[in-house]
Amino acid sequence: MPRQYPAAPAKPEVDVTKGAHRLHWATIPLQVTVIALVFLAMPGVLLMQFGIGWVLLLTLSVALGAGAYALVSWWNVSFGLRGDHLVVHTGLARRLSREIPLSRLQAVDVVRPLLMQVLGLAELRVELAGGDNSEIRLRYLGRRTAERLRASLLAHAAGLSGRTPEAPERPFYKLPFGLLLGALAFRIPVLSAFLLFLLLIVAGIAFIEFGVLGGAVPLLLGLMRSFLGPLLRYTDFYASFSPDGLRLRYGVFQARMQTVPPGRVQAVRIVEPLLWRSLGVVRVEANVAGYVGERQMDSSTLLPVVPRNLAFALVNELFPGTETATVRLHPAQLGGLGDDALGVDETAFVTRRGLFCKVIEIVPHARAQSLRMTAGPLSRRLGVATVEVDTPPGPVRARAAGRELTEARRVLDGVAERAHRARSSTAGPERWATRSESADPEE
Question: InterPro entries given for it (predicted)?
Answer without folding.
Answer: UCP026631, YdbS-like_PH
